[in-house]
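protien #1 (seq + structre)
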Amino acid sequence: MIIGILKCTKENLIAMVPQVVSKLIKSKYSVFIETNAGENSGYSNELYIKAGAEIVSRNDVLTASDIILTGVGVEIEDIKLIPKKTILIGKFKAKPDSERLIHLKYSEAQVFSLDLLPRSSIAQSMDVLSSLASLSGYKAVVTAANEFPGYLPMMTTSAGTIPPAKVLILGAGVAGLQAIAAAKRLGAVVNAFDVRASVKEEVESLGARFIEVAGNYDDKSAGGYAVKQSDDYIRKQKELIHEIAIKADIIITTANIPGRQAPVLIEKKTLNEMKSGSIIVDMATASGGNCELSIDNKKVIVHDIVIIGDSILYNKMGKQASLLYSNNIYNFLKYILKDGIENIPYDSDIVSKTLLKQELTQVLN
C-alpha cells in the first residue's frame, strides 16, 4: 500500500515528519513524498530519503497513492486527479461552506477531515485542533511580549519597582490554557474569562484569576466547546470584560464557537479606553475575530494599541507543529487501518464524524 504526502501550500506544515515516516516504512507501507514537501517545516528531501521514502512529483502523489495525507494543501485541480476510493486525510476546515469543500464532497475519494474529530478520550491522540492550539496559545504570549513596550514580571531596580504586566485571556480552551501557563511563567498577573464554568478549576490551577459572569449556559453535549449564550448574559459579559480590559496591558483572545462567527468581546468603546501601548493578539480572526477592529493576518494600530490578528500562530513553529500533526495523523491511521483498509470501522464515532461527505451533506442541504 502506498501512502502519499502532499506539500501544504497554505501553511508551514507537513503531514508526516521523517521520524514518523520511518514508523510507516517499518509497518510495510511504501511512502511517496512530494518534492520539497517539508522544506517550509525544516525537513529536507534527504531526511525523507534516509527515512525510507521516495521523492516524487505532486502528480504522482495524487494519482498513485492509496492514502494521501496533507494539511490544508489540496486544491480543486488536485481533487480532480485523485482516483476513486483513494483515502484523503487532512484538516479541511469542514464547517464553513466553500467551493473546495463542495468538490471534496462530490469527489469519489474518501475524505477525512481531522478538524471534525469528536472530543473524546479515545480520540485525544488524534486531536489535531488541540495539538496546534497548544502551540498557538504559547506563541500568542511570546508574540504579545515581543510587542509590549515593558516588562512582564515585576522588576525591582535601584530606581524603583516596576509592577508586573496585567494579562487578560479570553477563552480558556486548549489555546487559552496554554496562554495562561506561558504568561504566568513570564511573571505576569493573569485574569481569564470563559463562558464555560467547568474550566474554572483548570484556570485557577495555573495561577490565573477566573472571571465569572452569572447565568451562563453550558451545554454538555457540545463536546467541550463553548455554545451561544442568551442576550442578557452577553450584555453582562461585555460589561465585565470592558471593565477588566481597560486595565490590561496585554489581551489574548481565543474564543471560537464551531460553525459560527466568533463572538465580539473587545468593542470599539473598550479600545478607546484602553491604556496606550496595550497589545491585543486575536486568535479568532479566521472566523471574524473577537476584537471588533482586528483583521486576519494583519497588525493594526488603533489609538497606540497594537492589534495582531492571527488564527494560525502555530504556523510560525512549523517544525514542532508538523511533529505533533504527524503523530495525530499516525494515530488516526492506526485506528482506521487496524483491521485493514477493507475493514475501516465506519460505524465508529471517530470515523463517522470525520468522513467529510456525511458532514457536508448536513452543512449543504
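ok now protien #2
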Amino acid sequence: MKILIAPIAILCALFGAGSASAQIPEAMTQDQREYQHCMQMVSADPDQAFEYSLAWVDRGGAFPARHCQAAALFALGEYGEAAARLEKLASDMEGRAPPGALADLLGHAGVAWQQAGELERANAAQSAALNLAPHKTEIRIDRAMTLAQVQNWWEAIDDLNQALEEEPDNVMARVLRGSAYRQVDALDLALEDLNLALSRAPDDPEGRLERGIVRRLKGDMEGARTDWLDVLRLHEGRPAADMARRNLELLDVKPE
C-alpha cells in the first residue's frame, strides 16, 4: 500500500516556495520543521501524528498541517476521509500552487478513494489530476488499476500504453498491461509484455505469477509450474505466493 509522502512539487506548494522545481531551503523554517516532525510520526505513530496535526491547525497551521492530517488519516485506514481532505486541500490551493502539485494531491486522493473502495471517485480524482498534468506516469498507472478493478480492460490498456510511452522500462506498467491483455484474451501480447518485464526484474512476484497464468492458458504447464514455484521460493508469505500456491494446487488436480 502506498504511503502518502509529499513529492517536491507538493512540498514547494505547501510552503509557498514558488515553483515545483524549487528546493525546500536547507535552513528550515518552524513550519518546515513541524511538517517534517509530523510526517515522521505518520509512519511511526499515525494516531499521534493526527493529534499533533489537529493541534497544529488550531495554532494556525495551514496547508502543511492539513496535508499531514490527511496522511495520518490514510495511515490509520480512514481512506475516505483522507481522500476528501486531500481533494479539499487541492481545491483550496488552486491558484496558489503549480498544476503539478495540485495533480499530486489529487493523485493521492485517488489512491485513498481506491483503498476506500470508491472507484468512481478514484477515477474522477485521477482523471482531474491527469487533466492538470498529463505526463504524471504514476497517476496514469494508478488510474489504470482503478479501471482494471471495474473490468474496463481496454481503457486500462490505453492508460498503460501512454505510461509505457513515457517510461518504456516501467516494470509495474508492463506487468499490469500483460495482465490486462490476458483479460481480453490477447495472450501473445500478454506474454510479450511479461517476458519483457521479467527480463528487467527477474524476481518480480506479480510478473512471475501472471506469466505462469498466461503460460497455463497457452498450454505450457511446465512453464507455468516453474514460474509459480519461483514465486513460492522467492516470495513466501506475500500475497503473490499465496496465489501461486493456489494455482499450483489447481494445476495438480487430476480429473476423475
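Residues 1-133 form a domain with the Serine Threonine Protein Phosphatase 5, Tetratricopeptide repeat fold (CATH 1.25.40.10).
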